[in-house]
Design goal:
5 helices, single chain, mainly alpha
């Protein structure tokens, strides 16, 4: 059962990050608007999108899924801090939900287990 839950969470979370990562890298106007509202330059959007795609891809490699979950956890923590710092706490909800799901995936994938034992 644990394996099924882990894979379902991984697919759902990865799908979300693939969608948002591609949107950032394909220069969608809505993403420009989000980053512009927080005052970040456009290249930050591309870096974030790259991290999201890389982290999402790692979720499908069991040996490295906890690395992907860790990377995505950091991205979401940064997103939450950014929204709070720029007076947009209402936008933090989805990022917080994804952060919790990433932590759950990392935990289910035995977070911190040495790679040799993965």
């Amino acid at each position: 059962m644990r394996n099924i839950v882990t894979w379902v969470l991984s697919v759902v979370v990865a799908a979300e990050f693939f969608l948002t990562g591609f949107a950032k890298l394909s220069d969608r106007q809505v993403m420009f608007d989000v980053f512009r509202s927080t005052g970040y330059p456009n290249w930050v959007m591309h870096v974030a999108g790259s991290f999201e795609l890389f982290g999402a891809a790692l979720l499908f490699v069991p040996r490295f899924a906890f690395v992907g979950a860790g990377l995505l956890t950091c991205v979401m923590a940064g997103t939450i801090v950014s929204h709070l710092a720029h007076g947009q706490p209402e936008k933090s909800g989805p990022a917080l939900a994804l952060l919790v799901l990433c932590i759950a995936i990392g935990t289910l994938r035995n977070w911190g287990r040495p790679l040799a034992q993965a």
